[in-house]
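Sat 14:20. Reprocessing the chain from the morning session after the first attempt stalled halfway. Input below, unchanged.
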Amino acid sequence: MTPSATARARVPVTVITGFLGAGKTTMLRHVLANAKGQRIAIVVNEFGTLGIDGDTLRACGVEGCRDEDIVELTNGCLCCTVADDFLPTMEALLDREAPPDHIVIETSGLALPKPLLKAFGWPTIRTRMTVDGVVTVVDGPAVAAGRFADDPDEVARQQAADPSLDHDNPLAEVYEDQLLSADLVVLNKTDLMTPAQADAVEASIRAEIPRVVKVVRATDGQVDPAILLGLDAAAEDDLEARPSHHDAEGGEHEHDDFESFVAPIPEQDSVEGFITRLKTLAGQHDILRMKGYATVRGKAMRLAVQGVGSRFRHQFDRALSPDAPRTGSLVVIGQKGMDQSAITAALAQA
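Finished this time. Tokens:
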């Protein structure tokens, strides 16, 4: 068998990465809704202990989307738990009687893609699957607002005053590593940006990546799967072209700069009051991400909530069973040192 035929026989894997709240799960739902009969398995990894994203995908209502095709890994970041969690999961998918046609991995918003790409060199899976491509989803409005980067002029001034200062921004570092591993960048949420802002963010993305990478603009993650899947990048064989801030550290990566916790949510009196309180809380405590579910008095459906900074989206997404508890939960993610007690107390209000 020729090498090209062998490569085609391997199951293609697409890695979808992107910072917290960039829209990865929304884009995955669009992929599933437009799979056109292709058997796609989804591996979801999230920073935090509440499996919100897997639950969201299972609730997508897409015909042919089976629960067993959504696999959750919640024991930590994929880039840090490759041997313990990732490899057995991938081997189990390959060993199915009817293995998937394509596997899509949604990484944690705090994951570095490169250690995950290195895992595809593992002997038990190297000959059976290939990384079709790394798709990095970018939250356009967040980048336009400088959420993931320090003010370059201010950094230059501080460095000039004291070159010994360490100005590393952990948010920017994760964001940059995700861009540097990309084969395709999806500039998402362009409906929330002006054309000039979108142009500026796209220019900054192209300046960050030292090779030619296609940038696609999107709203609500609406990108044709034909664009996302079938890149044929064989990324596991192209690691040198994907530099990382952590290369010098041997690929080791800790999440010491970030923390997350799950807060219980009592039944809410109104949607508007709840969302207003979340926005205020996010601003007061500089929370990066909030996502989860709540119940609202008099409503028979649960309220799904997704927040990035002070921007929130919500919808009633699933009917509640009559005997279901009228409570909810939110995953709260921020930088180390959040006042968890104060945030939990505020969220305990109805």
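Residues 271-285 form the longest helix (15 residues).
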